[in-house]
Automatic annotation (TrEMBL):
InterPro entries: ABC_transporter-like_ATP-bd, P-loop_NTPase
Pfam families per the UniProt record, alphabetical: ABC_tran (PF00005)
Superkingdom of origin organism: Bacteria
Protein name: ATP-binding cassette domain-containing protein
Gene Ontology MF term list: ATP binding
Keywords: ATP-binding, Nucleotide-binding, Translocase, Transport
Gene3D superfamilies given in the database record: P-loop containing nucleotide triphosphate hydrolases (3.40.50.300)
Job description of the protein: Part of the ABC transporter complex HmuTUV involved in hemin import. Responsible for energy coupling to the transport system.
SUPFAM superfamilies assigned: P-loop containing nucleoside triphosphate hydrolases
Residues in ABC transporter domain copies: 3-144
Length: 177
């Protein structure tokens, strides 16, 4: 599959048809035969595509096993712009606040992420993803848990998420409608 830039692509299919497997190949989580290229580079040759700013990925279910404030989790989307021990700047927090506002969960900024509903957590992950400034975003069933939080136009909101010139997004969803 070759796509022009920028592109918004929905990978649609029945359960078990390989949508998540495709995303796992593109993120380097699954070995494959043949060729799979991301921005002209063979996926198996890429080292840490996310760290290089090539790829941002939102899996079907993201979870963490410790308490953390929503705002602190979202600002971590800026990690690749900082060194290992550097602190986030006020500008990073302003970007995190704007991302939370864009996805409609700014009111949750001070809440403990682990106490949120599945839909609220998914929106927080989307806010964090938008701060990664990747060239390609892969969203694996981003509305799976968020259906209770977002009205159906939520898919359109995701299409706008992080939209900048030259960025591509692929949305995997079992059905759109």
């Amino acid at each position: 599959m070759c796509l022009p830039e920028p592109a918004f692509v929905a990978v649609v299919g029945h359960n078990g048809s390989g949508k998540t497997t495709l995303f796992r190949v593109l993120t380097g989580q699954l070995p494959y035969e043949g060729s799979a290229r991301l921005l002209g580079q063979e996926v198996r040759d890429l080292r840490r595509a996310a760290a290089a700013g090539l790829l941002g990925y939102l899996p079907q279910r993201g979870s963490i096993g410790f308490s953390i404030a929503v705002r602190e989790l979202v600002v971590m989307g800026r990690y690749r712009h900082h060194g290992l021990l550097s602190a986030y700047a006020p500008a990073d927090y302003a970007l995190a606040d704007a991302a939370l506002e864009r996805v409609g969960v700014a009111h949750l900024a001070q809440r403990d992420f682990t106490e949120l509903s599945g839909g609220e957590q998914q929106m927080v992950w989307l806010a964090q993803l938008s701060l990664q400034d990747a060239q390609v975003y892969l969203l694996d069933e981003p509305t799976q848990q968020a259906r209770r939080v977002l009205p159906p136009p939520g898919i359109r909101a995701r299409a706008r998420l992080g939209h900048r010139a030259g960025q591509n997004r692929a949305l995997q969803h079992p059905r759109l409608g």
